[in-house]
Amino acid sequence: MINSLTVLGGGTAGLISALLIKKSHPTVDVTVVESASVGIIGVGEGSTEHWNTLMQFLNIPIEELLIETGATFKTGIRFSNWHGDGTDYWHSLLPEFVCLDRQSGVNLGLIFAIANNLDPTKTVPDEIRNSYHADDFSVNQFHFDTHKLNTYFHQLGEKLGIQFIEDTINNVVLDDQGFVKKIVGKKSEYESDFFIDSSGFAKVINSKLDCNWIDCQKYLPMNSAIAFPTPYKEEIPSHTEARALSSGWMWRIPTQQRFGNGYVYCDDFINDEDAFAEVSAQFDHEIEIGKKIKFSAGYVDKFWSKNCCSVGLAGMFVEPLEATSIGFTIQQIFCLIASLPYWNKNNNLQQTVYNKKMQEVAENIINFVQIHYFTERRDSEFWRWTENNLTWTDWNKEYITQYKSVLPGTIEFNEHFLMFKGSNFQQVMHGLRLFNHQEIKKVWDKHYAHHEKYFKQLYATKIQNPIPHRQMLENLMQLKPNTVAETLENVFRKN
Fold first, then answer.
1. What is the pLDDT of residues 364-411, one digit of tens each?
2. H or E, element range at 308
3. Does residue 166 form part of some domain?
4. Domain count, the chain
5. Alpha carbon separation from 237 to 14, 120, 142, 347 (Å, rounded)
6. Lower CB count within 10 Å: N or C terminus of the chain?
7. What is the extent of the structural domain holding 29?
8. Angle formed by the axes of helices 394-403 and 422-431, to 10°?
9. Cβ-count burial of 390 within 10 angstroms (0-12 exposed, 13-18 middle, 19+ buried)?
10. What is the pTM assigned to this prediction?
11. Collapsing DSSP states into helix, strand and coil, what is residue 348?
């Protein structure tokens, strides 16, 4: 039985872990040990739709999140110039795309678009993505100022009764069975029944346990990133941009006050100086690099080992292409909190099942991120290398070719904790021009054509009285009402 739990690391992953565990198990003493000398990685941060579940669980109102974290709404990711021909595609599961058949779970909206080979940059125009209207307000993803999010989560944790201690851990003590007995810091020692290792790349605790790193760089070769902020000169977009460059891609994440930017690249093809020069050329003003990050894609073979669970960068890291880090942390902890009440040193059933599920989730993430590199771009050494030398994952080898004429469906992705399902694969593969549209259209015409009138009308619909993103944010923060419903009602009435 667990009476006490210590989280090592006060970054986003550690704080999410502490909040969800304390909220679900209020009788457990939860302590976060964090070091002031360890900085926060990232300039701006984006979420996936899993964030909505976290907000509901922690009772976080949208307007409070916007005010406290400098957040903006995220309607998806624009992938710019990934084919090298100046075109874009979107990964954005807005209502226009999520039209599920109630019985089969088939995403009729995406099948319609794929069967008719609709231009993915035109299906949902920018005026819808960057504005809001009274008939539909379904955004459940956000961008954050990482530092403000950290401060806000500390405040929520203190209200829940989480204890926060500032210390630097320099030793891990195991008992005679190999379980973590305590972690030792410069100021004190911390004993607990259970530990969360969210110490980032340092892997302070799990490096002392029976955990091995599964390197995935042959599947995802990105290994370096430079991050930097830039000011606004235009309306706040409500999407993340991922712009392909010569040896990787550049992110742009809008918060309320600025953009967070970065260039993720493989240094086998470009050095740091040339990477800085290339990304600088994307702007009409000087930029100043805030962070340089070196990494290797992979994950631990045992996310839960003995009485420790590795979360965040300590358990897995891939490039930030699909904002997987926060989403995976949320999925990890929701899976963990159901097992914690039954755990003891003599029963590893929960641990075994948990590790099997989380390995499936990790592989799902790697499979999904990798397919983004199956592009038509061939204008640099790196992009030619991805065509000829990139090692495909076993799953992608088996399924992607078949999926060109048989859409990724619901059967293959029926595990609850998987981050990316059939609809995610369908939309990205559509943007990557991987489908045989003629074969998909045969299926549409035979089985789903009776829905066609609805979708033609849907895509032809023009929104009424759109509210720009910046104006929506300003109105929400001026009103500061008690409920989300009241917030939206007042904003739309005002306009």
1. 999 999 999 999 999 999 999 999 999 999 999 999 999 999 888 767
2. strand 308-310
3. yes
4. 1
5. 29, 18, 12, 50
6. N
7. 4-70+144-212+300-364
8. 70
9. middle
10. 0.91
11. coil
